[in-house]
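COMPLEX REQUEST
Ligand: S-adenosylmethionine
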Amino acid sequence: MTSDDRSGYVLGDSRTELERLERQARFYAPGTEALFKAAGIAPGQRVLDIGSGAGDVSMLAARMVGPEGRVVGVERSLQAVETARTRAAAAGLPQCRFEVAEIDAFETEERFDAVVGRLILMYMPDPVAALRRLLRFLAPGGVVAFQELYFSGARGYPQSALMDTCERAIRAAFAHVHGDLDMGVRMFETFCKAGLPDPKLINWAPAVTRAEPEGYYIMASLMRTLTPMLVQAGLMREDEIGIDTLERRLIEEVSDKGHIYIWSPLVGAWSRKP
Ligand SMILES: C[S@@+](CC[C@H](N)C(=O)[O-])C[C@H]1O[C@@H](n2cnc3c(N)ncnc32)[C@H](O)[C@@H]1O
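STATUS: Structure written out below.
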């Protein structure tokens, strides 16, 4: 992907990025599990996971549907799919299968009880059209459940200069290569426009502190993924970010201030195909 490819996917599929996705997935797992429980993901169901990345959402769903169910993860990156296959096999989840495909081009004769996804509609140029197309693979009465960020909903107290720099960098990167950081607040409208009944929403926003600092480490690792692109595209200077010392400086700054960071809420929405 070149820096001027504005329709590309900003995070790529390097080994470091896939490891970051796994770490982030552990952080988000309670929020996603809460959404899937509310949406009624249950033993024996067939689930289609869109934009499956390193396989975490598929594996979470696979544990909920059990050995009698099945989960198909769809993902454009071969490297991510290979990682997901290896991890699902190691986790003893043969009910998980992964396919390499572009969401817009994915086809199957199978019909599913649920279509799910996390942090994927935000990358779709037209999320309504994408959702509408995915409904074709869903059995009548089937569940649609997606979870997306509301980045503007993140708040730190007191202000941290370094967290502000991270937020500014993330906004710059996602504005440069398409990515809707506030897709979470557009979920209700997106579901309705795709022809679904009014979705129920579940908001999940962990608080990060020096006692539970994982969110700070995830922020620093996201900056590691984004820095080459930010610098190459001239959006930020390397010395502004100082990636090699960012994690240490971030932890020092927030610890020093007794900082609390309300993480970008993950807005989960679920509805049923009429
Ligand atoms: C932010 S990651 C989220 C991965 C996973 N859902 C999770 O929450 O851990 C988004 C994933 O969607 C994939 N992706 C983005 N656009 C896609 C498209 N148009 N078709 C298929 N996969 C896509 C990316 O390669 C990436 O692995």
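REMARKS: Residues 9, 11, 13, 21, 25, 51-53, 56-57, 75-77, 80, 102-103, 118-120, 123 surround S-adenosylmethionine (CB under 6 Å). The two ends are 39 Å apart (CA to CA).
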